[in-house]
Write the structure tokens for this entry.
Amino acid sequence: MSGHNRWSKLKRANAIMGKTKGKLYSKLIKEMTVAARLGGGSPEGNARLRVAIAAAREANMPNDNIQRAIKKGTGELEGESYEEIVYEGYGPGGVALLVECLTDNRNRSAADVRSMLGKEGGNMGAEGSVNWMFHKKGVITVKPGPSEDQVMAAALDAGAEDVIDQGADGFEVRSAPVDLHTVASALEAAGLTLGEQKWTYLPQNTVRLEGDNARKMLKLMELLEDNDDVQNVYANFEIDDALLESLSG
């Protein structure tokens, strides 16, 4: 498992357990609001909203919060208007970064991301400078219980591209982005219990970090993901699991 994926799982687990739940809820509410504004308030006809609602439920968000976020997006309730921006750049050791933002102030977001990158030895890149290093994929988490053969058989029947054994965390099923919901529905119909369902960017190659570069990279990830405008951060770094645990603990 790449360092970025492992770090993201640790951060999300901490958020769901309550350590940073308020910030997680804020980001999920933004995403549901924007998804509803762009594609309507019905999840059946809005793939992005279905993903956002699934993420909110996985984080144990109350249904009232979910419904309010959707109504803000559809205009039934008053709410902020957010702009979607993706910043590209480099972190310590030449790590490639994609930073997805939802913001009501483009200038503030650009200045914040540039400042955070600079603090930890990185720099902002031009549009298109690093996004070619990533593939967009649908990713579905299958919770522990079934065997790898059971998950593999169900995933292949559903049209998935790959199954990754995540040990105690269960399995990760990967698909083409457009097949995410079809695959997820088929896995559920096969009796599997699903966790997170999302679109993500997976790196084609990784950069291995150690020592000071590893510490700076994790600090940069924390700075970025703690920023209110930042929704998601994708990076291609690799850090030894033992070092990652010690630095993130």
Observations:
- The first helix runs from residue 3 to 16.
- DSSP finds nine helices and ten strands in the chain.
